[in-house]
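Thread: Newbie trying to understand structure tokens

Hi all, I'm a second-year student working on a class project, and my supervisor (Dr. K.) asked me to get a predicted structure for one chain before our next meeting. I've only ever worked with sequences, so writing a 3D structure as a token string is new to me. If someone could post the tokens and maybe explain what I'm looking at, I'd be very grateful. Here's the chain:
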Amino acid sequence: MSKTRTDKVRTFKENKRIKVKTTEGVKYIGRLHIVDNNTIKVEGFNIELHRITNIKSRSIGAGIAGTGLIIFGSFLTLSGGLLHMWPNQQQTGNGLLTAGAIIVSSGIFFNEFARNQRSNKWTYKIIEE
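---
Reply by user tm_fold:
Sure, no problem. This is what the structure looks like when written as tokens:
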């Protein structure tokens, strides 16, 4: 990929885990395989380069960590809500509710924190190294 306004180049090596969105609005998440000079394969589907609207790198570790944060934060939020209903436990419940909400939002942010390369700013092409 090369940026249209600058000479910046970003490469994705074959077998890299990516998320691709096409002009039809379909999203594919999987490993990148190069078919030919105009086509890539993700999740077993062939995608022509001119049909791609954006590409994002997707790390397995980041996905697992983000999902773990969301689950843990949800548990804390639920526990805080239940503790808030008990007499003499409102302070603890409020603390757990707040901590859970912060952890859930950080988990969502962690899952979506990959750089997104849109086709109106980047030119997609396959190069050999």
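A couple of things are worth pointing out once you decode it. The mean pLDDT is 82. The chain is about 35% helix and 30% strand. Feel free to ask follow-ups in this thread.
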